[in-house]
Amino acid sequence: MVVPKKGENYELRSDLNSEYKDKRADAIKRVIANMTVGKDVSGLFPDVLKNMQTDDLEQKKLVYLYLMNYASTQPELVILAVNTFVKDTADPNPLVRALAIRTMGCLRAEKIIDYLSDPLQKCLRDDDPYVRKTAALAVAKLYDLKPELAVDNGFVEQLKDMVGDSNPMVVANAVAALTDIHDIALSNQASASSASPPGSPTSAEQTSEGIFIIDAHVLNKLLVALNECSEWGRIAILSALARYKAADVEESEHICERVMPQFQHANGSVLLSAVRVVMIHMKNVEREDLIKQLVRKMAPPLVTLVSSAPEIQWVALRNINLLLQKRPDILQNEMRVFFCKYNDPPYVKVEKLEIMVRLAGEKNVDTLLSELKEYASEVDVDFVRKSIKAIGQTAIKIPEATDRCVNVLLELIATRVSYVVQEAIVVMKDIFRKYPRSYEGIIPTLCAALDELDEPEAKASLIWIIGEYAEKIENADDLLGIFLKTFKEESYQVQLQTLTAIVKLFLKKPDESQAIVQKVLQTATKDCDSPDVRDRAYIYWRLLSTDPAAAKSVVLADRPPISLPQTTVPPAILEGLLEEISTLASVYHKPAETFVGKGRMGIDAMRKRETEQEEDLSTTREKALHVVEQGQKSENLLDFDDDPIPSSIAPDFPSSSTTIINPNPTGMAAAPVRNALDDMLDLFSQTSLPPTSTNTHGSQFPNTISNSLSGFGQPLNESTQPQQHQPQSQPQQTSFASSSSASQPPPSTSTQAGTDDLLGLF
Predict the structure, then answer these.
(1) Which residues contact 597 (CB under 8 A, 6 or more apart)?
(2) Do the record's keywords include Iron (predicted)?
(3) Which helix (H) or strand (E) covers residue 161, if one does?
(4) What would the DSSP string read from start to end of 269-309?
(5) C-alpha pair distances (Å), 472 with each of 505, 586, 620
């Protein structure tokens, strides 16, 4: 006889149906524990449901929690719990009534929605404010599931009346529910308008009209309830105030004055929400004394946020960064608060550095430079680089402090630490761009560090400095020659800077740099595999050969001085982000539309969307395979497969050096079998060119730079103008397929003309 296996669920089922109360209570706790760790206990749904009717409030809460988790998987059995829910909504205990209506709102099952109307109607008018505030949130959940039911039964209108409730918590929850309903209606309207043809009315449009429109009467109710709510309630009311458009200047001033006390709240989210409301309505304030008062009151709580936990601190710093871009005077005397501590995480240090540069001025620049110099001796290489870059940004921002910044950079270069020296050279390049011809005396110090450079950006910066001040450096050709020796191995960034710097050197010292400029041009045009480097080399070569004066005006043109941008985002986006302070948009410094999808999507919609995407993917794969099969049956111009050709056509693959055998036994003139690959290979199968290249007009490149530049002396439009080539009048043209038989057709006139132009360019 086989003994049936008794697993954990079997034991739990036995205990749930036990006649002992304590045993059933213990079984429910074990079921919830298994559900919490991810075990599937949905099979116990009927047994747990039997334990709903109990006077033990703790047990009832656990059962309701189980129902909320597994109601979607057991929609047929959830209907059995309706009677208990309705009975609990009439319980003398307000906690039980609120628990029942909250659970019914969270059960996202279609069959139970219709039974929710009567209990919800009763709870919205309940005498206890705790029940009313719970029922207010249940209306928002009902509207999300079935908007027409919430509107037809008058639940939305009741929520609007509850904004004037005597209890501030009820007001806060009513505002939160109305805000959610408003957002849902707008989302439904957007999705319906995109799905329906233009001009046709939709139910979503009718639903979204008149939902939570804040007027002066509602505004006063919100301002009265603001100071008496909990943290969550204050955030909901402040979010509604941020959406309100003030009618005039006096109303904006009134809102700012009433919201200002929220700056003293201990909760960071309440503080940032209050700052958001004040920043929005401050734009309409005209009284200078009120603006100064608001700015002065805003600084201390923001400073307090900086001393919070690292995660909260980072969020606060990101929001402070936005505020400083709009109003730099908010924290102008609080730079020391943002000094980095030894135990700050790297992401906090980076934000503090950026804020310190924004707060830098003539009064505190010495303190800032001494602090940044200390940061440059840290062990974190990335933080050291950013600190040195901050010194350069300070020099660009404050012209009066540039000398002190340069002296600090020279002290850092004297340390001979590789990454410090290289980052300092990169920063000095920016300083030269901002203040040209001002610090030429430190160029020998920078050139002395040439052997320590191994990063592309540092090499490119030093090469730019040498090329820009080539007339002041006696051995500029020798220094650039060092980079020319390793030209092929350098990165593209270094190659481009080396090429430009040597051309600058030639334009400034033509007699001393003919050999080096010829070498770099030949190397860049022949041996470099970067099209950008080759194109720039050809442009310089043509400029130098046709019009040296034009080359000087292009290569040695005065560049506009660089400046430190006042904002990291465009002004229009900055205004939008300031209206989203205390949200993810203000943390990412991006509009919400860039990282939040449109519309509301629940778990069922997500699963449906994944299924549709999988079906679309399989359909696309089948179509792609069908196209490939069809392509294999037709002629493929880029077919590189090694499939054997039947012997009736050719004994082997035809190439540029073989002759196609004509299999026609009758001797009739039949067109030989050719494909596009053979024609392409024929174009490049001519005999090797002589060592000295010839341009379109027949001139060669001698060894001296003056004669070598004359090869490109003709105008560009003449050398590239298409000509009517005739094969009969070109005996000097090398045969494209010297070993091909006479039966092979010659290249077409257009193909040969294009090839002549292509080869003539070189």
Answers:
(1) none
(2) no
(3) helix 155-162
(4) HHHHHHHHHHHHHGGG---HHHHHHHHHHHHHHHHHHHTS-
(5) 11, 49, 64
State the pLDDT at residue 527.
87
- Domain-by-domain residue ranges, the chain? 8-189, 455-546
Q: Is the distance from CB of 479 to CB of 450 less than 8 angstroms?
A: yes
Q: What is the pLDDT of residue 741?
A: 36
Backbone angles phi, psi at 694, to 5 degrees: -120, 135
For residue 303, what pLDDT is reported? 92
Residue owning tokens 């294999």: 632
Name residue 196's amino acid. Answer: S
Q: Please check whether residue 121 is in contact with residue 128, taking contact to mean a CB–CB distance below 8 angstroms.
A: no
First to last CA, the chain: 93
Classify residue 700 as left (phi > 0), alpha (psi -120 to 50) or beta.
Answer: beta
Q: Is 437 left (phi over 0), alpha (psi -120 to 50) or beta?
A: left
Residue 677: name the closest of 656, 649, 651 by CA.
656
One-letter identity of residue 452: E
d(CA 35, CA 86): 26
User: Which of helix, strand or coil describes residue 694?
Assistant: strand
Cβ-count burial of 433 within 10 angstroms (0-12 exposed, 13-18 middle, 19+ buried)?
A: middle
Q: Are 507 and 476 in contact (CB under 8 A)?
A: no
Q: Retrieve residue 194's tokens.
A: 């995109």
Task: Classify domain 8-189 by CATH number.
Answer: 1.25.10.10
DSSP annotation of 139 reads: H
Do the Cβ atoms of 682 and 747 come closer than 8 Å? Answer: yes
**CB neighbour list of residue 365: distance below 8 Å, 6 or more residues apart:** 394, 398, 401, 404
Q: Where are the alpha helices (DSSP H) in 282-414?
A: 288-306, 310-326, 346-359, 365-375, 381-397, 402-413
The identity of residue 88, as a single letter, is D
In this prediction, residue 631 carries a pLDDT of 61
Q: Which amino acid is present at 263? A: F
Task: Give dist(CA 48, CA 405) in Å, integer.
Answer: 73
Q: Quick one: pLDDT at residue 118?
A: 87
What is d(CA 499, CA 463) in angstroms, rounded to the nearest whole number?
10
Using DSSP's 3-state secondary structure scheme, residue 312 falls into: helix
Q: What are phi and psi of 217, to 5 degrees?
A: -65, -45
